Amino acid sequence: TGPAPRKTGPIDADERFLTAVVAADDDDENFQVFYNDLNTTNILYRRMHDDNGGPEHTLDLDIEPNYGTPLAATLRLASSIMTTQLFYVTTEDNETQIAQVTLNCGNLNADEGDEENDGDGEDDDDDNQAGGNTNSGTAACAVASNSIISTNLTNGVHPDSKLAALRLGNDSVRVYFQAGGTNIWALNGDDAAGWAGSNLMGGVRPGSSIAATRSNATDVQVFFVANQTGLMRTFNYDNVGSDDSQAVDDQPGSSWRASAFLDATYIPSLASYRVFYTNPSSGAIVSYSRNGTQTAWTSSSDNAWGRPASGITAVGWQDNVRLFYYQSGRLTMSVNDGDDWDNAEPVA
């Protein structure tokens, strides 16, 4: 694709990307929601503990992101310790690169140390009140490392590439992106030997949004926008090739645009894949779902959802889903705890 000068800013509100991760156990959930600053290259983030939001933080990065960089993240939870990897796009010597930052985000159990109250199956809001502890689940994460992971790629990174990321196991990470030839590739980060690239899928629209989710380490679904038709398609990570993708919807509604923002998640208790898209110019959110081995995707929307003026990000665990997006200049959340959707609310 040739040299690509660093993208400049500021960016418009409808160009803002978001990504989120969640760590959860029997009585705690901790969210990290990352998003672009509109006026600088800063990556900002909010943390939430049990749906209670904390202050906005700014990542202190050695490698400067591009204005309006796409974002993707994974989280590792080991012995209740949360470690997040955030991926973003930067430019060095007129070459587009993918960078990662590793964040140490503390213990999921915000009331750690209050042994008589912790691990009792009670919500930690009650535990904290009983133990007199301050909730630390919204404090800033500590930057552990910041590095470029795409230097060994033979086809480089497309300057308009979007990103998606999955953790397949404790030490197995995939970062999905668009290479210089517009194919979707994966960067495989499995060991200390470094990151290696794999060519997965052709026929992709330049600058296509990319989303990925999984039910287990091998059943991975990747979503993208096709170049010829401008429609959303999906493929299974273990069954790759230019002819192996399927259309999610051959006749999407009027809110669909090939430039739509995509994100996807998996709901374990329902064995359900969910992919969401938003068209910031209209504020529409549309969801497609597929349960179990069912092959057809079902479209839906909900009046309780807000009207995003940004990208969208989705996280799921057990039978719960959270959607995050910007609406009326505020970070906003839509909540589903296994039943109906609650009305969209700004993050407190």
Descriptive notes:
Strand 19 and strand 20 (298-300) form a beta hairpin. The radius of gyration is 19 Å and the shape is globular. The chain has one helix at residues 124-131; strands at residues 18-24, 29-36, 43-49, 52-58, 71-78, 81-92, 95-107, 142-148, 164-169, 172-178, 184-189, 196-201, 211-214, 220-225, 232-236, 246-247, 261-267, 272-279, 284-291, 298-300, 312-317, 320-327, 330-336, 345-346. The chain starts with 17 loop residues before the first strand and ends with a strand. Mean pLDDT is 90; it is low at 113-120 and 122-134. It has a domain at 1-148: Lipocalin (Beta Barrel). It is built from one helix and 24 strands. A four-stranded antiparallel sheet has the order 1-2-3-4, with no helix packed on it. A four-stranded antiparallel sheet has the order 5-6-7-8, with no helix packed on it. By secondary structure, the chain is an all-beta fold. Residues 106-137 are annotated as: Disordered. This is Fucose-specific lectin. Residues 111-128 have a biased composition (Acidic residues).
What is the CATH top level name of the domain at 1-148?
Answer: Mainly Beta
Strand content: over 45%
> What's the gyration radius in Å?
19 Å
Count helical runs: 1
The CATH topology of the domain at 1-148: Lipocalin
Q: Note the quaternary state here.
A: single chain
Question: Kindly state the mean pLDDT as a whole number?
Answer: 90
Shape: globular
Architecture (CATH level 2) name of the domain at 1-148: Beta Barrel
Unreliable spans are 113-120, 122-134
The portion of residues assigned to helices is: under 10%
Largest sheet: 4 strands, antiparallel
Structure classification: mainly beta
Order of helices and strands: EEEEEEEHEEEEEEEEEEEEEEEEE
Q: Biggest sheet: strands side by side, in what order? A: 1-2-3-4
Number of strands: 24
The N- and C-terminal alpha carbons lie at a distance of 43 Å
